[in-house]
Amino acid sequence: MADEKSVTWAKDDFGFETRAIHAGKEPVPMTGAVVTPLFLTSTFAQAAPGEHIVWAYSRTRNQTRCAFAACVANLESARFGFAFDSDCLGAAVSVHLPGQGDHVVACDDMSGGTSRSYGPMFREQGIESQADLSDDLISALDALTA
Question: How far is Cα 107 from Cα 91, in angstroms, rounded to an integer?
Answer without folding.
Answer: 12
